[in-house]
Amino acid sequence: MPKVPSCGWNWNWSGAYRGGFPAAPNSQNSLAQAMITNPRLIVQVENGYYDMATPFFETEFTMTHLGLPAELQKNVKLNYYNAGHMMYLQDDDRVHLHDNVASFIDRGMKQ
Questions:
Q1: Alpha-carbon gap, residue 89 to 63, rounded angstroms
Q2: How far apart are CA 100 and CA 43, in angstroms?
Q3: 13 CB contacts (<8 Å, ≥6 apart)?
Q4: Taking the domains of the chain in order of start, what are their residue ranges?
Q5: Which of 21, 37, 54, 85 is deepest in the core (most CB within 10 A)?
Q6: Inter-residue long-range contacts of 4-12, CB under 8 Å, 24+ positions, other chains counted
Q7: What are the C-alpha distances in Å from 8 to residues 11, 12, 33?
Q8: For the whole prediction, is pTM greater than 0.85?
Q9: Residues 53, 10: Cα–Cα separation, whole Å
C-alpha cells in the first residue's frame, strides 16, 4: 500500500467532538480574535449556491455570528454564485469571481 503524503492529511482533530463523534474543527473563534486584534483585517467569502462541500447557509451563519462589534462586522463580505463549489467552471461566475477577488485586493490595499 502506498504511503499517504503527510501534507494535508495529518489534521489534529483532538477536542473536536460533538456528542462523542468527531466534528470538523471550528475556526470561528480564531477568526473573530484575529479581526479584533487587527481591525484592518478584511474577510471575503465566495459562496456557490449549490456547494455541497461547504454549504453557504453554514458560512452565512458563521460569518454573521462571529460576535464582532458592528464596526468590524462590516469588514466581512459574502459573495454568491449560481454554481457549486467550483464556481470558476461557469463562464459568468468566473468573471464575477475575478471581479470580486480583484475588488477585494483593491479594498485590502486601501486598508
A1: 25
A2: 12
A3: 22, 25
A4: 17-110
A5: 85
A6: none
A7: 7, 10, 24
A8: no
A9: 20
Note whether 49 and 81 are within 8 A (CB). yes
Can you read off the three cell numbers belonging to residue 77?
A: 463580505
Local confidence pLDDT in tens for the 111 residues of the chain: 444 455 556 666 565 556 666 666 678 999 999 999 999 999 999 999 888 888 778 889 999 999 999 999 999 999 999 988 899 999 999 999 999 999 999 999 997
Residue 98, all three cell numbers: 475575478
- Helix (H) / strand (E) containing 105: helix 91-110
Cell representation of residue 101? 477577488
Q: Which helix (H) or strand (E) holds 80?
A: strand 76-81
